[in-house]
Specification:
By secondary structure, the protein is an alpha+beta fold. The chain is built from five helices and seven strands. Strand 4 and strand 5 form a beta hairpin. The longest helix has 11 residues. The radius of gyration is 16 Å and the shape is globular.
């Protein structure tokens, strides 16, 4: 749980979905997507809402869409698209521990592979901002509708 979850007592997480491919990206943008664990199109990660994460998302805003996810949609996402993490937890030298997503005592991979959304991303496609009728950028609570269409 993050500090914002502990203070307010409610679920405060962001869902980030990679909408466009990684062709013709600069190296800092590729590094940012790697840090967010977004490796392929239609991949989703659920992260804490912190200023550092917001800055990372802002850097790659022309390739992702994001918004606040509800706890119900998060549970459905884990149930339908979560893959259980079966590998070892640390490397052989016990220096590096692998990142996992722990939900109800089970460890999952920290990302979700999704299908393309039913009825598409938006009427103007994946190269326009969400505010202009496209797919990219901040969606707010409407990210929940997109994730339901992608599961």
């Amino acid at each position: 749980m993050s500090m914002t979850e502990k203070k307010s007592g409610k679920f405060v997480k962001l869902a980030v979905v990679l909408v466009r491919g990684q062709a013709e990206l600069t190296q800092p943008m590729l590094d940012t997507l790697t840090s967010l664990r977004l490796y392929r199109k239609n991949t989703c990660v659920v992260v804490d809402d912190t200023p550092v994460i917001r800055g990372m998302i802002t850097m790659v805003k022309d390739f992702v869409t994001w918004g606040e996810i509800t706890e119900e949609v998060f549970q459905e996402l884990v149930q339908k698209r979560g893959k259980i993490f079966l590998a070892r937890q640390q490397d052989g030298h016990k220096i590096y521990s692998y990142k996992t997503l722990q939900v109800q005592g089970k460890k999952y991979k920290p990302y979700f592979t999704l299908n393309p959304p039913r009825k598409g991303f938006g009427r103007k496609g994946i190269k326009m901002a969400f505010a202009a009728g496209g797919a990219l950028g901040y969606r707010g609570e409407k990210i929940n509708d997109l994730l339901k269409r992608m599961m």
